[in-house]
Amino acid sequence: MDYTHFFLVATTTLGLISISKSLFHFFHWIYATLIRPTKNLKHYGSWAIITGSTDGIGKSMALEFASNGLNILLLGRNPLKLQVTSKDILDQFKDVEVKCVVVDLHNNTGDEIMKKIEQAIDGLDVGILVNAAGVAYPYARYFHEVDLDLMDSIIKVNVEGATLVTKAVIPSMIKKKKGAIINIGSGSTVVLPSYPLVTLYAASKAYLAMFSACTNLEYKHQGIDIQCQVPLFVSTKMTRMKASLFVPTPDVYSKTFIFFTGGKEDLLRTPKSKQRVILKQISIDDDAKFGFLFLLNQHLCER
Ligand SMILES: NC(=O)c1ccc[n+]([C@@H]2O[C@H](COP(=O)([O-])OP(=O)(O)OC[C@H]3O[C@@H](n4cnc5c(N)ncnc54)[C@H](OP(=O)(O)O)[C@@H]3O)[C@@H](O)[C@H]2O)c1
């Protein structure tokens, strides 16, 4: 084989591999988005535990799980908001049970959080855990300007909170060799190489992505599916964004969330495909991105 012929065969082979990979991803996307049936969530167990269930995405998920016939254990820091959520669920879904546990992931100690949850789940057939509680910056700022309380809160709720709740719940799943744990990360982990001016929030969500990937490998042979779902913008009190074509309401988001829950191939999943498609196309260099984020934040420009 002369050199030109070899070169032609090699480049054609590489081209075919690349096209096959793209086709595989495309057909997998079609299957996962349009064809794959929704998993029977009761298969994991009859109770779902949701942190951050008093507002936004967590609350919508609690209602969505209840609509699928699951009993709900609501975890939250505010007893009144827990009562309201519980009533909302029971008013709509008569056949489910709801329990509430008051846990403040920022102000309770690790020991208190673990004990409260272990006591609450004792004797329950827990199938699903969703770590949805989260804290973000109220507005963008440089890292050195983040006050200690906010810094503490982001690390305690987003990082330590999800870790401790998982540690409290996973032994019961290991015992019955079944369960699903879904950590709510952030689309920034998947679509952006960095997310300046909200550094601590972005870093806390990157932790969750890695935590989910590692624990998934540790426990998938024990029948436990662990995912990190990574939404982009959803219209909640955290983002203060209005719902639009690309910014779903938490109720719309939660329906897609349920659809992808437990999909083994979807370790890191941005449920809303419209957002995913758009953001995957955006490729700007770090300086341009920093300038763009800076301009978006009027208070930084005005200095
Ligand atoms: N919205 C988005 O665009 C978006 C995008 C990517 C990722 N996420 C993630 O999705 C999750 C839900 O966010 P969201 O938009 O629904 O926010 P949200 O409406 O502000 O709800 C946050 C939930 O976390 C709870 N929480 C906050 N601090 C807590 C603490 N110390 N102890 C216990 N619970 C606490 C809140 O309780 P209270 O009701 O008492 O305030 C609330 O239930 C978060 O992890 C967030 O980072 C959201």
Automatic annotation (TrEMBL):
- Read off the PANTHER family from this record: ENOYL-(ACYL CARRIER) REDUCTASE (PTHR43899:SF25), RH59310P (PTHR43899)
Q: What is this protein called?
A: Uncharacterized protein
Q: Name a Pfam family for this protein.
A: adh_short
According to the UniProt record, one GO cellular component term is: endoplasmic reticulum
Which branch of life, at top level?
Eukaryota
InterPro entries on file: NAD(P)-bd_dom_sf, SDR_fam, VLCFA-Steroid_DH
Residue ranges annotated as transmembrane are 6-32
Task: Print the keywords alphabetically.
Answer: Membrane, NADP, Oxidoreductase, Transmembrane, Transmembrane helix
Gene Ontology MF term list: ketoreductase activity
- Taxonomy-wise, where does this protein's organism fall, top ranks first? Eukaryota, Viridiplantae, Streptophyta, Embryophyta, Tracheophyta
